[in-house]
Amino acid sequence: QVQLVESGGGLVQPGGSLRLSCAASGSIASTYGVNWYRQAPGKQREWVATIISTGTTVYASSVKGRFAISRDNAKNTVYLQMNSLKLEDTAVYYCNWGVIWGQGTQVTVSS
Prior knowledge:
4-stranded antiparallel beta sheet
């Protein structure tokens, strides 16, 4: 069964950048979309971005133009490049493929 492992979170100032990684234990490129979600303290889980097998990407309006989802099929890894980070981007970020979820990685944007 596929396992997803996230990494790359951390503390960053407003306006800064981070790149999150989601490494899959098996090939996921041809099935399902791969998604990023986030959940801030006291708030509902929020969909952030999706990439499908063709490479097509879709973004939540809150991150459009600032975040970019991409993949490296040879490494079975999906990335989320996060630029121009805002305080409201602070959350635990989760990678998702079908019913499989990563463990989450904390992103904290603070001045």
